Amino acid sequence: MSSSVLFDEPGPRGRRSMAIGNVVGGVVVLGIAAWVLVTLAGKGQLDGGLWRAATNTRAWQFYYLPGLRNTLQAAAVATVGAVVFGILFGMGRLSHLRVVRWLSSVVVEFFRAVPVLLMMLFLNNLFGRFMRDLVADSAYTAVVVALVLYNGAVIAELVRSGVVNLPRGQSEAGLSVGLTPGQTLRSIQLPQALIAMLPAVVSQLVVVLKDSALGQLIGYKDLLRSAQILSSGESNPLQTLFVAAVLFIVVNIALSFAAHRLSRRLSSRTSGRTAPGPGIGNPVAATAGVDG
Amino acid sequence: MTELLDLLRQYDVLGAFWLNIQLTFWGALLALVIGTVLAVMRISPLASLRWAGTVYVDIVRNTPLTVIMTFLVLAVWTQLGVSLSTNFTQNFFNFAVVGLGVYHAAFVCEAIRSGVNTVPVGQAEAARAIGLPFLATARMIVLPQAFRGSIAPLGNTLIALLKNSTVAAAASVANETAGTMKTMVEFRPDYLWPVFFTFAIGFVILVIPIGLATTWLSNKLAVKR
Questions:
Q1: What is the pLDDT of residues A83-111, one digit of tens each?
Q2: Residue in B49, B66, B200 closest to A213 by CB
Q3: Is residue A83 packed enough to be buried (19+ CB in 10 Å), middle (13-18) or exposed (0-12)?
Q4: Burial (Cβ within 10 Å: 0-12, 13-18, ≥19) of residue B14
Q5: Residues A223-251: pLDDT tens digits?
Q6: What is the pTM of this model?
Q7: Which of A88, A134, A277, B91 gives a 20 to 30 Å CA spacing to B47?
């Protein structure tokens, strides 16, 4: 919906008051920014030395870039695992065997409800204490497995709703040419649902990347942790966290943008609905409200 | 079994959950206020307000909550000396609430905007036809219906907020669930599985009613069209 239905196309007086309003609004925004900068300067936080230490070659070479690499690596591996997990359990929830359906539902609902941080804490202890000879890097593995379980459960829901949202005729056509329900699911419904859910999976990458920053709390050297280690030596947490936040934001905005582009391009390739998720963890139900 | 029950009593697991529920309540309240203001800004006729709202949502939505929490404690509190309470413990609690509220406000704003999309265009046109200006149209016609249409995504935001309240551990809030579970499994690794399942089931028990309630409410309250 364009928001303009909420107000009339302004006449000359409306345009004048809107121009005044814009100037006032702009002044308020700039005023807040100026106040923040003045306060920061007053606390000595704009001191060039602090910012140089947070942005010099050494900081990038030994802290941000290795941290960013660790973050991206964990996120990439976790996404692949989550997609596999999601397709498996999404199909499980659509199975015509009641036991499989029931088991998949319990698994999916359980991992969707448990906070990722608790999962990471648990897995880190499990791998670090009891499976040392199996798992080399317990923090990294805990981050990846926790992200796979949570986001896999979300993707399983995407698969299920993707198949359910397909027009009824799709499965009817499959059944009428003599395919079994299982074959119809695998060769007709699932491929379309996968295309329809692709933008939402890309949005889910934003969630994976954001959640990977929780690894910091169990000692995984991700981007946030690296920034903190750097700041403890230079005592400039404000500056290093600012740089880390900008890196996270840039990567995630690029991903959100890709999800929107993908959604537009793919909408002609499937009869399912293509929509990017909101990036908070449960894209299926969150977009359900849009239909009204 | 009795040993496990003693362990659960010794570490006050119920108290930890209560702390997370309190964090969720105040965080949700703050997020709802900021989010509603942002939503009104994003549909307002003033380009500067629309722009500011969009920038806020795009930036906050793409920042990890952990970064916001760490920033509040390490930068705002330690470096800038801003304090939200004279009480040491309360101070961290308040910072965590601010972190949760500021972060989830972006998602509340988007949820309300998705609700605005469910209001038929004719409603706003009728409001304008009887001469209502923008704020009155938004306040009396569009927002009341938008809220009823956005209950499902708002419920999802609330569930996410409840689960994210564990991230308060990054804002040094002591005795909430994540910190309590961490201490428990570090001191009693032999009870790793039961302790984890206690906390996990606790969250399942909290999350499922919210999901059911919001689904029921959104069916009941949504304006039938």
A1: 999 999 999 999 888 999 999 999 999 99
A2: B66
A3: buried
A4: exposed
A5: 999 998 888 887 888 889 999 999 999 99
A6: 0.90
A7: A277
What are the φ and ψ backbone dihedral angles of B224, each rounded to 5 degrees? -75, 130
Chosen from A2, A118, A126, A238 to mutate, greatest number of chain B CBs within 10 A: A118
Question: Which residues are CB-neighbours of B48 under 8 A, at least 6 positions away?
Answer: A21, A22, A23, A25, A26, A29
A127-152 confidence digits (pLDDT tens): 988 888 888 888 999 999 999 999 99
Using a 10 angstrom Cβ sphere, with 0-12 exposed, 13-18 middle and 19 or more buried, the burial of residue A115 is buried
pLDDT at A264 over 50: yes
pLDDT at A290 over 50: no
CA-based nearest distance B2→chain A, Å: 22
Helix axes B47-61, B13-42, angle to 10 degrees: 150
Q: Which residues contact B109 (CB under 8 A, 6 or more apart)?
A: B34, B35, B36, B38, B39, B42, B53, B57
Phi and psi dihedrals of A222, rounded to 5?
Answer: -85, -170
**Interface ipTM:** 0.91
Architecture of domain A49-268: Orthogonal Bundle (1.10)
Cβ-based contacts of B107 with chain A (< 8 Å): 278, 280
Residue boundaries of the structural domains of chain A:
49-268
C-alpha A266 chain-centroid distance: 20
